[in-house]
Amino acid sequence: MGRSRILIDACVGTDKERHARTQWTGLQTPFLDRLAQTGFQPEEIDYVCCTHLHADHVGWNTRLIDGQWVPAFPNAKYIFGRSEYAYWDQIYRTTDPNGRHLAAYTGSMPPVVEAGQMLLADDGFEPDGWLRFEPAPGQVSIWLSSKGRTCVFSGDIVHHPIQLRYPDWSCIGCGDQVQAAVTRIKLFHRIADTDTIMTGHFLAPHAGRLTSTSKAFDISCVECGPSSGSD
User: Fold this and answer.
1) What is the C-alpha to C-alpha distance for residues 16 and 7, in angstroms, rounded to an integer?
2) What's the whole-model pTM score?
């Protein structure tokens, strides 16, 4: 059993330029202060795991110090899915790195690579014995197993509780909406009635157990009870 300190998906970040999301541009939040309040300083994080490289999942990979982007977690290894990293790195090298579609990548990825802190994950990669990376088109899912229980960190496979009722519905952020629906439905059927899901975008309950219903799926947690996802 591992004893590493692991952060999964580093949110929007501060001081970033986000062309398509003006409410995120120049955002200032006490993210690191809140992390410290839980008992962890940035220097203590061993791994930063990214389910994918969208702006709202990699922002705190870096922070701005003296006009330069530097890794926000100086002693961590940052883990990215190999195929998605290759996709964005190719675009970064062949197009305008300051263009609207690369703003998130430019400020959040090359500084980590240049610092020698990147690890690329293949199918089945396990950084610490109990955390496993599995491929999902355009991203990865991250599976945590401990004491006979399993939790999956789903990234953008599911965005909103309504997708529990209509799992074939995809959102505007899905590059391939048909494939996104296939991936989501497969995941739901795999974990329903057994495993826990930690979502990237739900309000409370952020995590819970999916249960099969006559219509589709519902989500519940011990503290919160059932959601209205399947109503």
Assistant:
1) 20
2) 0.89
Q: How many residues does the chain have?
A: 231
**Tens of pLDDT along 13-42?**
999 988 778 888 889 999 999 999 999 999
Provide the residue type at 194 as one letter. T
pLDDT at 83: 93
Domains annotated on the chain, with CATH: 6-121 (3.60.15.10), 147-226 (no CATH)
Residue 76 CA to its chain's centroid (Å): 16
Q: What residues have CB less than 8 Å from 183, skipping those under 6 apart?
A: 136, 137, 157
Residues 165 and 230 sit within 8 Å (Cβ to Cβ): yes
Per-residue pLDDT tens over the stretch 80-99: 999 999 999 999 999 887 77
86 near 57, Cβ under 8 Å? no
* Residue 114 DSSP SS3: helix
Q: Which helix (H) or strand (E) holds 64?
A: strand 62-65
The Cα 83–Cα 80 span in angstroms is 9
